[in-house]
Amino acid sequence: MNFAPPAVSIAEIARLFTTEYDRGTPDECRLLQSGLNDTYAIRVDEARYALRVHGPHKWWIDGEGDLRFELGLLDHLHAQGVPVSVPLARREGDPLGRLRTASGERYFTLFSWAPGEPGDGTPERVRLLGETLAAIHVGADSYRPAHHRYTLDERSLLDRFLRELAPSLQRDDPADVAFVEENVADIRRRIRTFDPGPGGWGVVHGDVQSLNIHFTVDNQITVLDFDLCGYGWRAYDVAYYYTRIPEHLREPALRGYESVRPLNDAERDMLPTIGRLAWIREGCRSKALVKRLREPFMSFA
């Protein structure tokens, strides 16, 4: 996927930080990641921050209210002791700001720094990740947002991405296309009859993967990047992560999650199906997608 260059220069970000926040003048400001959002790392003395310039034209974000849903959720989870990166207020008190760029008006938010680095490759860390993911789900049940947010469901996770995949399927091997269509029908049937039970539907992170989880050397965890959060099956978050880690880490991850929020039998049974659904969301061409639909669990051999 190709992204446009960052809409805001590093010099402009440094000036924005100094003007909008009562936190000093940056000693360091650098582009951390450019994509649908542009994220900048800022350092003032020993304090560190992440400033996100929210990108335009994201199908799941319909405006300011969707962004405020995410920021409010982070404040809510933080107040409950869940280790997440949180939005920080501007001088005038509102964490969400606006700026004009050559490509149009953009929103921006300053976040607390997530210490440590991505890296979840040990049983202890994936167990802790499982516990924290469950704490997010349980904690979000008491969130009472004043703003709208999208739903991760059949329409947004299956129909939308199938429309994007359709042009390539028209050019692909008919046998592969038939296999994809057969799996889509099976996934659709299963999710339509899936009853997640009490607590099985609610706010989810939407992108549980190692880059969005930081660990310090002493295994303190921070979860970040709730950009794809919304309402969905809690089993979606579990399956998305569970099917993408090595086999020896799956049991510790699930054990950690269930120590806080036990899955019911229906949710456990749906993990492979939702794993297949999540691969369709990735937008793979049919050859790669056939492989993932046959075996939704990644191989690390």
Q: What would your notes on this structure say?
A:
By secondary structure, the protein is of the alpha+beta class. Helices cover 42% and strands 19% of the residues. The chain has helices at residues 10-20, 64-79, 123-140, 154-169, 174-192, 234-242, 247-258, 265-281, 286-294; strands at residues 28-34, 38-44, 47-53, 87-88, 96-101, 104-112, 117-118, 151-152, 201-204, 213-215, 221-223, 230-233. Strands 1, 2, 3, 4, 5 and 6 form a 6-stranded antiparallel sheet that branches. Strands 7-10-11 form a 3-stranded antiparallel sheet, with helices on one face. A hairpin with a 2-residue loop joins strand 2 and strand 3. Helix 4 (154-169) packs parallel to helix 8 (265-281) and helix 6 crosses helix 8. The radius of gyration is 20 Å and the shape is globular. The two termini are 27 Å apart. The model has no long low-confidence stretch (mean pLDDT 94).
